[in-house]
């Protein structure tokens, strides 16, 4: 029997770093579902598929897969490893747009469910606890204030030497993306009724990780 832990929340709350750490601690696979939407967005940008109809028409050309190398998730599109190409601001905004398209979500739904059925996973995203894994063993809604999230993203971009955006621009993007993710008609970002709310605004990574581990252990014992 696989154990499933669902972590949802807005961008920059620390989901991916914390979900990855949690997966290592628990010996589970970490599934970053945002990377799947980003990979589709990259493909559509390259194909210059812009409208919903064009994007839907291109979906049958796509084969998106996740593979694990040295414990790290890599996302492949038609056998090309695109993991290093999907973190740019352009792909980030495009991912938010493609993720609002029902056919894209349906396409990825099956892939995500299969992964969770076959493996014990810590899966992070926006609709994991509400739509993809409604029966997950543990559900966590991870959040932090928009300002804190924008600052974290800004510092991360500086560290990775991705230049071109000021803090104010990153904050504006965070707010715009929250808007898009929370107000879309299909699978909007929202806390599942049975999810535990964790706010990391005032916590560092180690403190957040300790809290998440505690929440997981308590809920898995129930
Ligand atoms: O977590 P991220 O920033 O890599 O996600 C990229 C985009 O994909 C984001 O705008 C929201 C969307 N997304 C989604 O709609 N559902 C998911 N399960 C994961 C991500």
Strand order of the largest sheet: 2-6-1-7-8
The 3D shape can be described as globular
Topology pattern, helix = H, strand = E? EHEHHEEEHHEHEHHEH
The helix fraction, in percent, is 40-55%
pLDDT averaged residue by residue: 93
Terminal CA distance reads 16 Å
**Rounded radius of gyration (Å):** 17 Å
* Low-confidence runs: none
DSSP strand (E) fraction? 15-25%
Number of strands: 8
Task: Report the major sheet.
Answer: 5 strands, parallel
- Each distinct ligand: 2'-deoxycytidine-5'-monophosphate
Quaternary structure type = single chain
Tally of separate helices: 9
Briefly note the structural class of the backbone. alpha/beta
Summarize the structure.
With 222 residues, the protein is an alpha/beta fold. The protein has helices at 15-26, 33-47, 52-58, 89-98, 102-118, 128-132, 146-159, 167-183, 205-221; strands at 4-8, 29-32, 64-69, 72-77, 80-81, 121-125, 138-143, 196-199. 2'-deoxycytidine-5'-monophosphate binds next to helix 2, helix 4 and helix 8.
Topology:
Elements (H helix, E strand, L loop, with lengths): L3 E5 L6 H12 L2 E4 H15 L4 H7 L5 E6 L2 E6 L2 E2 L7 H10 L3 H17 L2 E5 L2 H5 L5 E6 L2 H14 L7 H17 L12 E4 L5 H17 L1
Parallel strand pairs: 1-6, 1-7, 2-6, 7-8
Antiparallel strand pairs: 3-4, 4-5
Helix pairs in contact: 1-9, 2-4, 7-8
The structure holds 2'-deoxycytidine-5'-monophosphate.
């Amino acid at each position: 029997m696989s154990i499933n832990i669902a972590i949802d929340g807005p961008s920059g709350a620390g989901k991916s770093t914390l979900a990855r750490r949690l997966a290592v601690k628990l010996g589970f696979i970490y599934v970053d579902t945002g990377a799947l939407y980003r990979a589709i967005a990259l493909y559509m940008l390259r194909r210059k598929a812009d409208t919903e109809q064009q994007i839907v028409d291109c979906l049958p050309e796509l084969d998106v897969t996740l593979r694990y190398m040295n414990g790290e998730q890599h996302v492949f599109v038609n056998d090309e490893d695109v993991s290093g190409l999907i973190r740019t601001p352009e792909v980030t905004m495009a991912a938010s747009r493609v993720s609002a398209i029902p056919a894209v979500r349906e396409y990825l739904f099956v892939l995500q469910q299969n992964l969770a059925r076959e493996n014990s996973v810590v899966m992070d995203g926006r609709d994991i606890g509400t739509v993809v894994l409604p029966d997950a063993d543990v559900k966590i809604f991870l959040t932090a204030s928009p300002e804190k999230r924008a600052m974290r993203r800004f510092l991360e971009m500086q560290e990775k030497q991705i230049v071109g955006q000021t803090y104010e621009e990153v904050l504006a993007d965070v707010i715009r993306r929250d808007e898009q993710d929370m107000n879309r008609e299909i699978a909007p970002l929202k806390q599942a009724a049975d999810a535990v709310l964790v706010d990391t605004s005032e916590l560092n990574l180690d403190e957040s990780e300790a809290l998440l581990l505690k929440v997981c252990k308590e809920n898995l014992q129930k």
